[in-house]
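A reminder from the course coordinator: this example appears on the midterm review sheet, so study it carefully.

Given structure:
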């Protein structure tokens, strides 16, 4: 039984993120030890959720230029250590605002004429159909799915129109059972901006929004690959290519 638990699935051949132009400096972070946050002096692996900054200041990440403001509504009980919302704040700092919310939070007075909320509802329209000249702010919900409905009911969001993206398959390692189309926050942000600016010439490149996501994806893959272990709840998640460096 123990041998069966360590039997890998049939190998896959397609390397993840092959189609994306992500800055290769992420490789320099793979084996670095935890570092001290320059602000709060806590030990962190890559990013400090409290101070919303990098901790390895000798390896700075790429900067992504977003066309509109990006506000991320982060539910208070969620840990930034498990969230990918922080990635966006670090990679696109000028346009990204993280807002910690709870049941009593009073949200800014968002103008429904210039603001949209990414959430798949019956009334949602595709991001690719939006008028680029009118939308100034996009809101994202950063919470577990069972908490998202509470956020949608907050008074400040009542009149904000909903938008959606085309179905995408998540590559997130924190497996949920609702649907493979339920994305990590940074995946949703990436696909929104890609579809929102569809048709723009020259086409903007948002691939580096997945900079830390690709790094963490690789670390998870390598850990299971080296030990030839089956990934809990989703055995097919691990690619099991050998050597592990061939994954990327």
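Designed residues:
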């Amino acid at each position: 039984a123990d041998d069966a638990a360590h039997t890998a699935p049939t190998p896959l051949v397609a390397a993840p993120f092959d189609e994306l132009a992500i800055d290769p400096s992420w490789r320099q972070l793979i084996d670095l030890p935890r570092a001290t946050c320059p602000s709060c002096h806590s030990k962190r692996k890559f990013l400090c959720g409290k101070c919303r900054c990098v901790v390895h200041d000798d390896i700075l990440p790429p900067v992504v230029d977003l066309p509109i403001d990006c506000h991320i509504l982060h539910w208070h009980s969620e840990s930034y250590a498990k969230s990918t919302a922080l990635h966006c704040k670090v990679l696109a700092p000028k346009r990204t605002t993280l807002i910690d919310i709870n049941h009593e939070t009073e949200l800014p007075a968002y103008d429904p004429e210039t603001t949209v909320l990414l959430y798949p509802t019956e009334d949602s329209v595709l991001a690719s159909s939006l008028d680029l000249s009118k939308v100034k702010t996009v809101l994202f919900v950063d919470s577990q799915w069972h908490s998202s409905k509470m956020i949608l009911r907050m008074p400040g969001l009542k009149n904000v129109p909903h938008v959606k993206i085309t179905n995408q398959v998540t590559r997130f390692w924190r497996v949920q059972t609702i649907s493979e189309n339920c994305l990590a926050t940074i995946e949703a942000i990436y696909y929104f901006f890609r579809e929102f600016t569809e048709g723009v010439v020259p086409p903007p490149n948002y691939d580096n929004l997945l900079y830390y996501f690709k790094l963490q994806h690789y670390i998870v893959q390598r850990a299971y690959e080296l030990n030839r272990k089956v990934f809990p709840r989703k055995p097919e998640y691990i690619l099991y290519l050998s050597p592990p460096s061939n994954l990327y």
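Confidence is low (pLDDT under 50) at residues 1-14. The longest helix spans residues 211-227.
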